[in-house]
From TrEMBL:
Native source organism of the sequence: Papilio machaon
Superkingdom classification of source: Eukaryota
Name this protein carries in UniProt: Peptidase C45 hydrolase domain-containing protein
All copies of domain Peptidase C45 hydrolase, residue ranges: 144-385
Residue ranges the record marks as coiled coil: none
Pfam families recorded: AAT (PF03417)
């Protein structure tokens, strides 16, 4: 990974302005290289991607729903309580969001609402039939020679063409260091205006991870939103540090997700695992369910597979079950090409693994393949089995010998 103060590159064909309507699926992956404090990297992201962020905030229906909840007494109380807790737990990430807001010239509260997500979206309506009909799909294998992890990045249709990759060297201010911030080197795909981490990426301490949204029925307003926990996960230097971040003792996660993880160690060994994370309704911590994979195939979508959690009902669960069924139709993967085929599966038309149907509220906006032998992260906009990656990023783990 290269680190310069601020540099921005776009791979692919930029074409029409992203702020225009009906521009179709653009084959472009903007990548920005940054160095600075939390506020500074946030500001430079916001300044460089202002048009993308502004366009997303104008078009994203989910934000309108969040604002409606925010404008109720219970919604505003949940917002204020969550913000207060995050200023105490992760003040430097709040500053990072403030930097994005200032750089993009958009309201901070709108960006913070995006980070609260379903915690604010369901504050006055506990209806289990939330509007989701798809989500991310993951498959990975480990062999003596290699570990390959494939991921589809699925998100609301408005997110299509509204993302970028941050490659950042974060150098905390003395004040932020006193509050717990540490120096960071990472690369992560980011939704417009949102913190890195809640998608896919890696850090220079040997950690690679992807995220699946999970939907517990009962959420905990005021507790840590998952996007803050996955932002903190980018700092992890060891599996023990990662587990501590996910556990979030003293508060705990307010909603849910799972993370598919590869660790590379100094001796060249690698671990492959999935960790399901859920709110603990009886304690101030997260519930973690960790499974390592040696010979079995890692497969995960958007439903809890091991942890017993009361989940929402509706299309997101049906979609997850259907996509898992499609993934299991394939022979266990033994090569990168096998991973490409699985990620491109469209066997079940209503809920395909790679979703491009124009009327689908959830779209596959990109796919990523982490090839640990090649040390590359490939990002596709179209189906991986029939297209070339639009961006190919090298993965370096230059800080491995500095673990502590």
């Amino acid at each position: 990974m290269c680190f310069w103060n601020v540099s921005c590159y776009c791979f692919g064909q930029a074409g029409t302005s992203l702020s225009e309507k009906h521009i179709g699926r653009r084959r472009v992956v903007p990548v920005i290289y940054l160095q600075g404090s939390h506020y500074e990297v946030g500001y430079d992201v916001g300044r460089n991607f202002a048009s993308i962020i502004q366009s997303f905030l104008k078009t994203y229906q989910g934000l309108k729903d969040f604002e409606r909840e925010y404008n109720t007494p219970s919604g505003r109380a949940a917002y204020d309580n969550t913000l207060l807790n995050m200023k105490q737990r992760y003040p430097y990430y709040v500053k990072e969001i403030q930097g994005v807001a200032d750089g993009a010239k958009v309201p901070f509260y709108q960006l913070f609402l995006l980070h609260m997500d379903d915690i604010i979206g369901t504050i006055n309506d506990k209806n289990s039939n939330r509007i989701d009909d798809g989500g991310c799909s993951d498959i990975a294998f480990k062999s003596p020679e290699n570990v390959v992890l494939g991921h589809t990045e699925d998100a609301p249709m408005e997110t299509l063409n509204h993302f970028y990759i941050m490659s950042a060297h974060v150098i905390p201010t003395p004040e932020d260091r006193e509050l717990g911030a540490v120096e960071e080197r990472f690369a992560s795909l980011c939704y417009a205006g949102q913190l890195p981490g809640y998608t896919m990426g890696f850090n220079e301490y040997g950690l690679v991870f992807t995220i699946n949204t999970l939907r517990p029925l009962v959420l905990k307003p005021g507790n840590t939103p998952r996007m803050f926990i996955t932002r903190a996960l980018l700092t992890a230097r060891t599996p023990a540090e990662a587990e501590k971040i996910l556990l979030d003792e003293g508060l705990g996660i307010g909603n849910g997700f799972s993370t598919n993880v590869i660790w590379t160690f100094e001796n060249g060994e690698r671990d492959l695992m999935n960790i399901e994370v859920a709110p603990d309704l009886t304690a101030n911590k997260s519930i973690l369910n960790i499974q390592k994979y040696t010979n079995d195939t890692l497969m995960h979508c958007n439903a809890y597979l091991r942890e017993r959690v009361q989940e929402v009902t509706g299309d997101i669960i049906e979609s997850s079950v259907t996509r898992m069924k499609a993934i299991r139709r394939h022979a266990p993967p033994r090569s990168r090409h096998d991973i490409e085929r699985v990620l491109s599966d469209t066997t079940y038309k209503d809920f395909p693994v790679f979703q491009t149907r124009l009327d689908a509220p959830i779209q596959t906006i990109a796919a990523g393949i982490f090839d640990m032998s090649a040390k590359t992260w490939s990002i596709y906009i179209d189906k991986p089995d029939s297209s070339e990656p639009v961006a190919l990023l090298p993965m370096t783990f230059s800080q491995l010998n500095q673990n502590h």
